[in-house]
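testing teh design pipeline on a random one, pls ignore if ur not involved
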């Protein structure tokens, strides 16, 4: 039998370092999970935005075509000029040119969503997202700083890397100190199997040895210095992760505030354009306005509606970014949370 007492903590610090490395890798898994789910959410928001923009662009294109037909008719009657016709043709061409990029983007987003959810592009989910089917959470997960440090998986990963680097210093120090080993032996000198346990045939011994590194050429000393340098690096990376996390949250909160102002302005513009369209429709029914004014109002409304859709998309995307900045809620997954609690 032999036993090496862990006098200088070599085994203990080695286990401490390995355990911290295992936790760091697991927090890296949590970070990947948060990134993946955030990308799925943002992709769904982008699909909803593009779908609503496509619908508005098609309505706008239809209004432009009707206006062009009216201008062609007015030119025949002498009520419109070639300049008016050319301007409307340019407007129609611009509306036609805007639709194909939106259709391409929609197809690419569906392919991306399929990939993010683990499917081939041909197996993309059939759900077509619109803003009418999406809702913002009533309560945003604003956290105090200490909670943020506990929730962000990248911070937790940097913390475990720092823990492992600290333990490696202890390992390097212990390697420079003498190693104590205790040995014991027990046996029998019997010449026959039947005499194996008879009195006078047994023997035992107990000893101890002390070994210390002598001719290492400074290697162990430099290993210790390297471990301390790695610790300083890990400490700087941990500080950088914390500061980056707080910057990320601050930037996202600022973006949300600006999104709210932009959304209010876009909603006001959309409402004003819709009111103008409604009034023009009533005037057309009563004979006070013509179809040209009606389609002009329709154009203005669809353009304002596209601006509103884009503002809504920014608000949704930045809300998802805030959830990601605050840790993404990975602790709500029972399998991940249970494994994390077992390590506490």
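output:
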């Amino acid at each position: 039998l032999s036993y090496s007492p862990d006098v200088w903590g070599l085994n203990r610090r080695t286990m401490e370092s390995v355990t911290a490395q295992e936790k760091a890798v697991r927090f890296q898994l949590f970070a990947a999970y948060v990134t993946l789910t955030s990308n799925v959410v943002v992709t769904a928001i982008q699909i909803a935005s593009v779908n609503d923009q496509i619908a508005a662009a098609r309505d706008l294109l239809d209004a432009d075509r009707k206006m062009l037909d009216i201008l062609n008719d007015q030119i025949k009657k002498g009520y419109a000029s070639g300049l008016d016709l050319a301007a409307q043709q340019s407007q129609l061409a611009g509306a036609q040119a805007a639709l194909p990029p939106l259709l391409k983007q929609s197809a690419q987003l569906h392919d991306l969503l399929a990939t993010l959810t683990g499917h081939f592009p041909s197996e993309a989910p059939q759900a077509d997202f619109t803003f009418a089917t999406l809702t913002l959470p009533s309560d945003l997960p604003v956290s105090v700083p200490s909670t943020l440090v506990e929730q962000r998986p990248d911070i937790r990963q940097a913390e475990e890397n720092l823990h492992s680097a600290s333990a490696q210093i202890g390992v390097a120090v212990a390697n420079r100190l003498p190693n104590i080993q205790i040995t014991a032996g027990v046996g029998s000198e019997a010449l026959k199997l039947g005499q194996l346990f008879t009195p006078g045939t047994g023997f035992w011994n107990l000893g101890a040895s002390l070994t210390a590194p002598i001719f290492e050429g400074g290697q162990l000393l430099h290993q210790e210095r390297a471990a301390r340098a790695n610790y300083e690096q890990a400490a700087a990376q941990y500080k950088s992760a914390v500061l980056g996390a707080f910057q990320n949250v601050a930037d996202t909160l600022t973006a949300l505030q600006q999104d709210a102002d932009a959304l209010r302005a876009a909603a006001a513009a959309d409402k004003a354009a819709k009111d103008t369209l409604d009034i023009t429709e009533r005037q057309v029914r009563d004979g006070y306005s013509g179809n040209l004014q009606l389609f002009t109002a329709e154009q203005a409304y669809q353009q304002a509606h596209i601006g509103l859709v884009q503002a809504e998309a920014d608000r949704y995307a930045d809300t998802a970014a805030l959830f990601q900045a605050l840790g993404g809620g990975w602790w709500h997954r029972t399998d991940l949370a249970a494994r994390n609690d077992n390590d506490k």
